[in-house]
Amino acid sequence: MEDKDLTPLSETEILSRLTLLPAWQYESDKIAKTFEFASFTDAIQFINGLVGFCNFLDHHPDINISYKKITFELTRFSVGGKVTARDFTVAEKIEDDFQNYSHRKVN
Questions:
Q1: At what angle do helices 40-57 and 85-100 cross, to 10 degrees?
Q2: Domains of the chain
């Protein structure tokens, strides 16, 4: 994996990229979003489906589990806890997988 995507982004770049990711938020040098699933099992299965991708990219989100709700927080610790293009690659994958996941909860 090329490391060009590990350069910290400016706040302007981050906010611009967030316009393409519905409901993702930028705060405290992280981008984050909470997703809701039909059950606890579905939420955990969704996370398990991301493991290979995250390992391949060597980028592992902080994941907070609250029953059927999963919050992903993305930042790159190796560059001082800043948001990078790689965080957005992971966020896009999470978003795409969630949109295609059959057990997500739709409000």
A1: 140
A2: 4-100 (3.30.1360.20)
pTM: 0.92
- The answer to whether the beta carbons of residues 76 and 82 sit under 8 Å apart is yes
HEC profile of the chain: CCCHHHCECCHHHHHHHHCCCCCCEEECCEEEEEEEECCHHHHHHHHHHHHHHHHHHCCCCEEEEECCEEEEEECEHHHCCECEHHHHHHHHHHHHHHHHCCCECCC
Instruction: Give 38-62 pLDDT, tens digit per residue.
Output: 999 999 999 999 999 999 999 999 9
Which tokens belong to 15? 């906010």
pLDDT tens digits, one per residue of 66-105 = 999 999 999 999 999 999 999 999 999 999 999 999 887 7
- Give the integer Cα–Cα distance in Å for 13 and 97: 24
